[in-house]
Amino acid sequence: MSAVTEIRHVGYAVPDLEAERAFYRDKWGLREVAATDGLVYFAAAGSSEPSVVRLRQAADRRLDVIELATASRADVDALHVRVNAAGCRGIFAPRELSGPGGGYGFRFFSPDGLPFGISCDVKQDQSRVLDALESIPARISHVVLHSPNHKAAVQFFVDVLGFRVSDWLGDFMCFLRCNDWHHRIAILPGPPCLNHVAYDMASLDAMMRGVARLRGEGIDVQWGPGRHKAGNNTFSYFVTPNGFAVEYTAELERVDEANWQPTVHKPEPSVMDLWGIGTGGPHAMPHPAPDAGLFQPAEV
Ligand SMILES: [Fe+2]
Question: 120: CA distance to ligand 1 center in Å?
Answer without folding.
Answer: 25
